[in-house]
Amino acid sequence: MPVITNIDDLKRLHRRRAPKMFFDYAESGSWTEQTFRENTSDFDKIRLRQRIATDMTNRSTRSTMIGEEVAMPVALAPVGMTGMQNADGEIKAARAAEKFGVPFTLSTMSICSIEDVRGATKAPFWFQLYVMRDEEFVDNIIARAKNAGCSALVLTVDLQILGQRHKDLKNGLSAPPKLTPRTIANLATKWAWGLEMLGTHRRTFRNIVGHAKSVGDMSSLSSWTAEQFDPALNWDTVARLKEKWGGKLILKGILDVEDARQAVNVGCDAIVVSNHGGRQLDGALSSIRMLPSIVRAVGDEVEVHFDSGIRSGQDVLKALALGARGVMIGRSYIYGLGAMGQAGVTKALEIIHKELDTTMALCGRRDVTTLDRDVLLVPEDFEGRWA
Ligand SMILES: Cc1cc2nc3c(=O)[nH]c(=O)nc-3n(C[C@H](O)[C@H](O)[C@H](O)COP(=O)(O)O)c2cc1C
């Protein structure tokens, strides 16, 4: 077993163990992948202030996100097809999150259903909703999330239509994989993945199949998205769904100050500053570059969460210091899951926790809730001057 010391190690193992079409699905951005790349490279431009001779005892990474106690302010982001990276992946990730004491978010496009995850865990989880044209389906899935005791609805507002990811088209991404000579050749080298997959009956989009009318070729994510996602989604829809849900609402996918103000007007509990991990509008600015202006605009009125590009505890610290109350991680835990199942997700959380804790200490701080801009060195032109 290789010695795993950072998230990149998990990524290497994930690449080796999961079928190519699923690793590529995780490891891609839309079109040229500029935004995908800059999400991570822009973090590197921010540096840390080393402080010395401060008491480092009794440190704490505990905080709250939308009023929920968390062992560290890092939630697992909703990730479609997680159960294809590793059999029953959503259940494994939810269990790892529960044990660690951080929130898990289940995607609409998951393999394990809301009921599957509910049956396998005790802690309330968050449910992420994509708005479909079929209102009955949407109302029904909201009711199912309520029944399962989900403690927040994460409404994703940046994917009415799907950004094109070249690799998914070239690989013929589907769940379960369609057996072509190319996929068979690749699957033959992933026998451990295949054996585990044979051991579960959860191999398709179980939140949807059996719940939505007239499901066409459900296995192909891109064609189903094009057919079913509601391109007419607007602020009135958001208000209607907020009413329907009646609980804590998190709006995910805000990257613009004006949209952040609208989100405050509609009365959500938190926003997630996010560009969907660089998978939607290629050419948009990195999420971390947009964070400070959004915090300045609405940080006093709504809880600001952040995602896109976090690969370490240092990145978490930078986002918190720039004003995020908490963050979500996507690929960082998916690499862990694809590498080693539930133990890999736990490993990813442990790595990030340790990096966050150590960095905080070396910056002279003991409490994650007190992190502020003072711990950072941010280049003057970091946010850029864009006209
Ligand atoms: C493979 C993959 C699938 C995703 N599926 C969803 C999804 O179903 N719903 C959603 O709201 N966001 C989805 N996202 C976006 C994540 O929730 C999150 O915004 C993104 O991964 C953050 O960037 P990071 O991966 O750099 O941490 C997905 C991201 C990835 C990588």
Automatic annotation (TrEMBL):
PANTHER family, A to Z:
2-HYDROXYACID OXIDASE 1, S -2-HYDROXY-ACID OXIDASE-RELATED
Against Gene3D superfamilies, the record matches this protein to:
Aldolase class I
The record, for Pfam families, names:
FMN_dh
| Chain positions recorded as FMN binding sites | 78-80, 107, 128, 130, 156, 252, 274, 307-311, 330-331
Q: Upper taxonomic classification of the species?
A: Bacteria, Pseudomonadati, Pseudomonadota, Alphaproteobacteria, Rhodobacterales
List the InterPro entries.
Aldolase_TIM, Alpha-hydoxy_acid_DH_FMN, FMN-dep_DH, FMN_HAD, FMN_hydac_DH_AS
Organism, by scientific name, is Thalassococcus profundi
Q: GO terms for CC?
A: plasma membrane
Kindly provide the name given to this protein in its UniProt entry: Alpha-hydroxy-acid oxidizing protein
SUPFAM superfamilies from the xrefs?
Answer: FMN-linked oxidoreductases (SSF51395)
UniProt keyword Protein biosynthesis, yes or no: no
A GO term for molecular function: oxidoreductase activity, acting on CH-OH group of donors
Catalytic residues, per the record, are H276 (proton acceptor)
What's the cofactor? FMN
Source superkingdom? Bacteria
| Keywords of the record | Flavoprotein, FMN, Oxidoreductase
| Family affiliation | Belongs to the FMN-dependent alpha-hydroxy acid dehydrogenase family.
User: Does the UniProt entry include the keyword Oxidoreductase?
Assistant: yes
Annotated residues for binding of glyoxylate = Y25, R165, H276, R279
All copies of domain FMN hydroxy acid dehydrogenase, residue ranges:
1-381
